[in-house]
Every structure is written in structure tokens, then in C-alpha cells.
Design goal:
The chain is built from eight helices and twelve strands. The protein has two domains: 128 residues, Trefoil (Acidic Fibroblast Growth Factor, subunit A) (Trefoil); 198 residues, Lysozyme. The longest helix has 19 residues. Helix 3 runs parallel beside helix 7 and helix 4 packs across helix 5.
């Protein structure tokens, strides 16, 4: 049976990203080929999943932190899962490989891991015949993203051609809640806040790599054993929010299913990857603040709180001044372009 798998953790479809080359991740609002699997009923009562994306079986890879990935040519124990009825049409998947439950880990961008000893919300899924479950676009307002391409070009009149609107909108599926939470005003305010901080960090999408080359060697934390420095690689700022440090490249790559620790230059080579790293920080990291930028805007804490998260130690904690005002000015300008009031608490 051709089927879709939907995570109860964030109500999104599981995708075999990059045509199956990346680990499975729950991040799609709509189901297409990458989000479709043939369900195989094995003789021992277990099930296996054959990805339509690359015609490979999904495996719980114990050599890769138990991530689920479609890479096996035959069914063995690592490719088998027990379906556990959780009621209300929901099931849990227990990997035969290690007897642990599959989880859509929202702390890691929704990537699927077989690493939980018990099943709860993040470990619950629904499996439906492909084409029978209604799917919704990621950003339904007006049939697309809440910022049009014309508005994007107006916001960034001197942007580098690398920073494409298509690359941005392609990256949105990684974090479907971004600029898609709350009413129309809240969605526009979050989009404006993100784009304003991006404007400040990159000089209006002019800089792809950090401008100050003297800083390049400084961003390597050789004491970090989880995300160790790759020989010959530098982790200076790249992309819309200038992601830096090896531990950030490692964590972002882990969440997005991309080899950013080994190849940080991907952020400066692929527009969609660059935008995804910025969305990863915005939606999952608290930085120098106490909450993510996404939460700051959707929980009415205001634009100033996003400044604190992104660069609070250097800007908010040193009296604000020019950089803070620059961000605020851009936020007001972009809100005007999008036709929304900027709200309260603009400065940190």
C-alpha cells in the first residue's frame, strides 16, 4: 500500500528529504513523492517502509545515532518496525533494531530517531493511504508565502543574486510554523522581524560570508567533542543570519540532515541551505536570550526580544545604540511594506 506517515508531534508529513539521501524528517505540510512510502507487511508481523523517493527501505541506522534513513536494498532487522496501536487512529513504531520507539524530535528539526524507551506525543504517528488524507499548503495566505516576491525585492533592492526568493520559499518547509502562526498580523510581523534582522546581519542581503576576514580563525571551539572542528575548515559567519562556530554548524546540520560540520561552505553555495540555517536559528535557538525568535514574535514579546536572542550580549547588554536602532528601523520599514503595525516592545 502506498501511504503517507504523519507526525502527531507537529502535524506534518514525514519526508525522505533530498530524494532519500537525508534522514527522514517530519516537516512537510503537503505530501508528494518524497512523502510517500510503500508499506510492506512482513511475515513476522512487523512492517517495513519502501521510500518512493529512491526505492530504498527505511532503516533505523544504529551507526548514525539511530536516525531513520531510506538507504537499504533489502529488509533485515534494522528495516523492521512493530506497529503499536495508540488509539484514536494513532500508532507508535518500535524499531526491531534496538527495541526503541521512533520519535520526531522537535528539538532537532523533526528528524526521526529510534531512541525513545516510551511512546508519547512525539512518538505517535498516523499512517494513511496516499491521497486520502487532506494536506494543506505550508503558507495558505493568498495561496503562498505571506511576503510576495515583489515585496521581497522591494525589501532588498541591492541583494546579491545568490539570495533568491525561490531559495527562501523552498526552505520554508523545514519550519512550517514560521510566519504561519496566529492571525494575519502576527504572521506578517514575524516575517518582517526575520527579514529585518537578516537585513542588518547581511547589509541588505549583500554579504554571503562574514565581511571581517580577520575574525575567520576565531570561530573554532576545539573543546567541543560533540561537534568537533573538521581539519582545514573554518566556521565564520555565512548566510542570512551569519551562522558561526562549529557547534552551530554541527547542530544545524544535524537538525536539517545536512553535512554542515564537514562542509560549512554549503551555506555559501546553496541558497536554500543558507535560508534553512537562518530558519533553524530563528525557530529553535535561544542564543543570548531566553526564548527563540519565533516564540518572541508569536507570544507577543516583541521585536526587541528577537534582537536579544540574536545578539543580545553585544547589543542589548551594552546599552543598545546604533546596531539596535538599525534593526528597529528596518523592522518598521518592512512592516510598512507588508502593511502591518509593528506592535510594541521594539527595542531590547
Amino acid at each position: 500500500m502506498a501511504a503517507t506517515i504523519k507526525s502527531s508531534a507537529n502535524n506534518t508529513f514525514v519526508s525522505a528529504e533530498n530524494q532519500g539521501a537525508s534522514p527522514l524528517v517530519a516537516n512537510r505540510q503537503a505530501a508528494q513523492a518524497w512523502e510517500t512510502f510503500n508499506v510492506v507487511n512482513n511475515a513476522d508481523g512487523t512492517v517495513s517502509f519502501l521510500s518512493i523517493a529512491n526505492n530504498k527501505y527505511v532503516t533505523a541506522d544504529l551507526n548514525q545515532e539511530t536516525k531513520l534513513i531510506a538507504r537499504a536494498s533489502v529488509i533485515q532487522d534494522w528495516e523492521k518496525f512493530r506497529k503499536i496501536d495508540r488509539g484514536n487512529g494513532k500508532i507508535a513504531l518500535q524499531a526491531v533494531a534496538n527495541q526503541l520507539y521512533v520519535s520526531a524530535d522537535l528539538n532537532k528539526g523533526g528528524v526521526l530517531y529510534a531512541n525513545r524507551t516510551a511512546a508519547a506525543g512525539w512518538e505517535e504517528f498516523t499512517i494513511a493511504q496516499a491521497g486520502t488524507e487532506a494536506s494543506q499548503p505550508s503558507h495558505p495566505s493568498g495561496g503562498g508565502f505571506i511576503v510576495s516576491e515583489q515585496q521581497f525585492n522591494q525589501i532588498y533592492p541591492s541583494r546579491q543574486s545568490f539570495y533568491t526568493y525561490a531559495g527562501f520559499t523552498a526552505a520554508l518547509g523545514a519550519y512550517p510554523g514560521f510566519a504561519n502562526t496566529g492571525d494575519d498580523a502576527m504572521r506578517k510581523q514575524e516575517a518582517a522581524a526575520f527579514l529585518a534582522n537578516v537585513y542588518h546581519e547581511t547589509g541588505g542581503l549583500y554579504y554571503i560570508n562574514e565581511a571581517n576576514t580577520a575574525n575567520y580563525p576565531h570561530y573554532s571551539d576545539y573543546g567541543n567533542t560533540r561537534y568537533p572542528v573538521e581539519p582545514g575548515k573554518q566556521y565564520y559567519g555565512r548566510g542570512p543570519l551569519q551562522i558561526s562556530w562549529n557547534y552551530n554548524y554541527g547542530a544545524a546540520g544535524e537538525a536539517l540532515g545536512l553535512p554542515l560540520l564537514k562542509n560549512p561552505d554549503l551555506v555559501a553555495q546553496d541558497s536554500s541551505v543558507a535560508w534553512k540555517t537562518a530558519l533553524w536559528f530563528w525557530n529553535t535557538q535561544t542564543g543570548a536570550g531566553s526564548m527563540t525568535c519565533h516564540d518572541a514574535m508569536t507570544k507577543s514579546r516583541g521585536f526587541g526580544e528577537t534582537i536579544r536572542t540574536i545578539n543580545g550580549a553585544l547589543e542589548c547588554n551594552r546599552g543598545g545604540g546604533g546596531p539596535v536602532q538599525s534593526r528597529v528601523d528596518q523592522y518598521k520599514r518592512i512592516c510598512s511594506i507588508l502593511g502591518v503595525a509593528p506592535g510594541n516592545n521594539l527595542s531590547c
